[in-house]
Amino acid sequence: MSTAPKFIQLIEALHDARVELVIVGGVAAVAHGAPVSTFDLDIVHRRTPENIERLVTCLRDLDAVYRGRGKQRLGPERHHLDGAGHNLLQTKWGPLDVLGSIIGDRDYDTLLPHSELRDIGRARVHVLGLVALIEIKEALGRDKDKAMLAILRHTLAEKK
User: Fold this and answer.
1) Which CATH architecture has domain 7-159?
2) DSSP state, 114?
3) In whole angstroms, what separates CA 73 from the centre of its chain?
4) pTM for this one?
């Protein structure tokens, strides 16, 4: 396996499994044309029993295990994915952060109206809109988010 993440393959696998999700974070920024680098794919998934079942099956197919567990290879189960928490996983295609919500209570249903359908590889997926992505990066306030804000704002200005 290559050490470089293969986000297109990862997105296509989630799409093929019919997982309902919104792409957020660095990959969302790249999808909007922002010249940034990212090391993981961040998604917020719909937390319905049916969608969680599809997601768990897909994650098993992707050989997903929790990152930072040393030699312990713990894979996600349904009960890990039905809450608002963050599941930081490593898959055969690279790092995947499966988020129940972001900034507290912003879950799939809250983010969906602020997303846009985009074609990534052969998948058509929801990607968080640039304005909403900027608002979230501002709210997070971490150094890495602050560093990205100028680039995102410039990208937004260019699009207008």
Assistant:
1) 2-Layer Sandwich (3.30)
2) G
3) 21
4) 0.93
